[in-house]
Every structure is written in structure tokens, then in C-alpha cells.
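Input C-alpha cells:
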């Protein structure tokens, strides 16, 4: 793969530290969520992954929508990233909730979401590694 762009970020002190991008556009306090016994006084890797995956998937949906000549520009994608015990360590699971415009019929919408799942870089990176559920709303 020839990278068109490479994002660079550094995290210090793990889940109770900071995450900073090389260009300074991201500078976030990290904290373990309350549900996992932490303070919750910052963001966490799962929130960042959910936001990134949702944004990337929305772009992929826009691409396949344009190719199919279907306007999905008002679609919204909500990413849900769960973390839990898996064997000796931890694992992730993702649900992507795609809210399509009323002008897109259910069958067409489902087909476009499936096509977006084939071209989205996050989907390609996670495929076969973690469960990803697609929900069309």
C-alpha cells in the first residue's frame, strides 16, 4: 500500500494519560471510564475508535452512494465500541448504526451500507478480527 497520508499520535501513561497528535490538533486527557472502575474524567481509546470508525464509514457510504447515484449526504453513522474480557485479555466489538435519509428505500440503503463495509478502511482492518454489526435505521 502506498500511504496517501499518515496520522501520527503519541499516548503517554496509557489510559490515564494524554493523547497528542503530531500536528497538535488533538491533545486529549485520557481516563478509564467509570464503568471500568476509572474516574471518567477524560476520553478513552474506545470513544476515539468509535468516532474514527463512524467518520470513515460515513465517507465510504458517501462514496458508494455517489457511485450508485443515490444521495446519502444526510446519513448519520453512530459507532459503538464495546470492550470486555476475552480469554486472558480484552477484546472489542463494534456496532455501526446507520441512519439513512427518508428518500432512500430500505433495500437500497442496506445494499449501500454493505458496499460501504467492503470499501471502508476501518472495516477492512477489523474484518475477521472483531465482530462488526451493521444496523440500518
Amino acid at each position: 500500500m502506498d500511504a496517501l497520508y499518515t496520522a501520527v499520535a503519541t499516548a503517554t501513561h496509557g489510559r490515564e494519560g494524554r493523547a497528542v497528535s503530531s500536528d497538535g490538533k488533538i491533545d486529549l486527557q485520557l481516563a478509564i471510564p467509570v464503568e471500568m472502575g476509572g474516574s471518567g474524567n477524560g476520553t478513552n481509546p474506545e470513544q476515539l475508535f468509535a468516532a474514527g470508525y463512524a467518520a470513515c464509514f460515513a465517507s465510504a457510504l458517501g462514496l458508494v452512494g455517489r457511485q450508485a447515484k443515490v444521495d446519502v449526504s444526510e446519513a448519520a453513522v453512530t459507532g459503538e465500541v464495546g470492550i470486555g474480557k476475552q480469554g486472558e485479555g480484552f477484546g472489542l466489538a463494534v456496532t455501526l448504526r446507520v441512519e439513512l435519509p427518508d428518500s432512500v428505500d430500505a433495500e437500497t440503503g442496506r445494499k449501500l451500507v454493505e458496499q460501504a463495509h467492503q470499501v471502508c478502511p476501518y472495516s477492512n482492518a477489523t474484518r475477521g478480527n472483531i465482530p462488526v454489526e451493521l444496523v440500518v435505521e
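The CA atoms of residues 58 and 89 lie 31 Å apart. The chain has a mean pLDDT of 97.
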